[in-house]
Amino acid sequence: MTRIKRGYIARRRRTKLRLFASSFRGAHSRLTRTMTQQRIRALVSAHRDRGKRKRDFRRLWITRINAVIHEMGVFYSYNRFIHNLYKKQLLLNRKILAQIALLNRSCLYTISNEIKE
Question: For this UniProt entry, which residues form the secretion signal?
Fold first, then answer.
């Protein structure tokens, strides 16, 4: 019986895996089994942290808006400010409001005066 040489498919798969894990430290970039485990772990972390990043930015925007509202001396809190925005049907999201709060506080002050009851 003649010897059958293995194909290139497994080698190609491992090469692709090795390129992905080349920046990992120690055995995580050298041994195939640990490379596979670390790749799965890295992709899970990336997937989880994409959602976390969205939550973190939303918290940051809310904090910035709240800080500027309290600094301006407006007599209501952040949640009442957002509630009044919705009642007056001003469609400004928190990202835009935070940018206005940082760059142009007088504009945010006029918005708050417009929606105040």
Answer: none
